[in-house]
Amino acid sequence: MKAAAAGLGIDKIGIASAGPFTELKQRLVRHRELGYESGFEESDLDKRTEPALLFDNPQSIIAIAIAYPSKLQDPPKSEPGARRGILSRSAWGDDYHNVLRERLSRLEAWLKERVPSCRVLSMVDTGALSDRAVAERAGIGWSGSNCSIITPEWGSWVYLGEMITNLPLPPDKPVTESCGECTACIDACPTDALVGPGQLNAQRCISFVTQTKGVVTDELMRKIGNRLYGCDTCQVVCPENKGKNWTHHPELQPDNEKAKPLLVPLLTIGNREFKEIYGSTSSAWRGRKPIQRNAVIALGNFKEASAVPELTEVLMNDPRFELRATAAWSLGRIGGTAALEALERARAREQDKTVLEAIHAAWTSLRESEAATVASSLDEVVIVDKRKQRE
Ligand code: B12
Ligand code: SF4
Ligand code: SF4
């Protein structure tokens, strides 16, 4: 099976025993108690850790890994007047869920041809099991301080999937490599979401925040930067990923305009157009709202004054309060007379409490910074005056 992996389009296969994940269970209980869950995980911790609850008489779990690209070829520049956002590498190319499911069904067909009595249950990401815990047990890679499974061959730029089976296959040993003394990912995480080696407070992880649909806090909006979906920082800085860029799966190759799109057109993208462009990628699962909201945030973080008319349009007319509130924040961050006027006009007609609060916060901070600028220029006048008097 392992020798056939490459022919099946699979980069690495490992075998794990199908016994309960007892240590993981304790870990997940503690994780929940600390409030570190994202809410995207399967909520039943028994199902997450006991393969026998998902599959009748499981004998082993076949774990697979598929490597993906980490570099864009000739990426378009993000420039004043044409600012761009970025999708995380896990959303480049075709949706990895579909790609891995297709590989798992190829593997299933290969197995059934040889062992007709074989039964399998395949999963990728949305299944109950922890894909990382299975991969670790199956010797695919080690569990890094950035939480990712790092394979000695492909680094952490791998998607994971698995198949519970009734085949009693000999289990692989976990890999012996480890992070050693390195702490680069923990140091680089913009929000200190990595609260310790291999321990993530998902609520502070930018990858999670970019996938939420609500209004984000000022602190986290500033840290989102121009990320439209996901975050790769803790993997980009990882020395184990240095020089690793995998281009052998054509379906996973990025389209530059999708991976690094212009921000302004995203503000008005319709549902149908969004599905046409992004529907085939893994970034579309939460719909267009989070990505549009993140585009509004990114323009604010770029302080892109040329986008004030479009942001004003969002603030005045977008039916979604989350978008209007975020546009208020963004205009406050950009500043200038046009932004201030837009906030004042919106304040006069806005009915939603959250948006009104956002407008007020943006307006106040703008006025304060304006007052500070006036005050500092007055200070300068006074200093100049005093100098003149002395002369
Ligand atoms: C929920 C989820 C998220 C959440 C929370 C992530 C997290 N770290 O918990 C959010 C939205 C933030 C997220 C982000 C990302 N995700 Co995600 N996510 C998942 C999902 C659905 C469940 C993960 C989960 O249960 N986490 C809870 C933690 C506690 O458990 P765990 O990580 O599964 O298991 C590990 C720990 O428990 C640890 N552990 C166990 N016992 C102990 C004891 C001690 C002392 C310590 C320190 C650790 C430890 O070891 C286990 C194995 O590594 C999985 C798919 C799946 N079904 O498993 C994908 C998955 C983990 N995500 C994936 C990816 C690619 C990402 C992103 C890179 C996407 C991006 N570019 O933005 C980021 C990475 C963020 C990060 N640093 O982890 C891949 C990971 C591939 C890989 N090479 O590791 C997965 C496996 C999807 C897939 N099938 O490929 N994700
Ligand atoms: S994905 Fe980004 S925010 Fe999340 S842990 Fe990694 S560096 Fe921190
Ligand atoms: S950056 Fe260093 S500590 Fe973090 S996962 Fe990579 S090797 Fe491990």
From TrEMBL:
Pfam families: Fer4_16, HEAT_2, QueG_DUF1730. It is an enzyme of class 1 (oxidoreductase). InterPro entries: 4Fe4S_Fe-S-bd (IPR017896), 4Fe4S_Fe_S_CS (IPR017900), ARM-like (IPR011989), ARM-type_fold (IPR016024), PBS_lyase_HEAT (IPR004155), QueG (IPR004453), QueG_DUF1730 (IPR013542). Its EC number is 1.17.99.6. Residues 170-199 form the 4Fe-4S ferredoxin-type domain. The keyword Zinc-finger does not apply. GO terms for molecular function: epoxyqueuosine reductase activity. This is tRNA epoxyqueuosine(34) reductase QueG. The lineage of its organism: Bacteria, Bacillati, Bacillota, Bacilli, Bacillales.
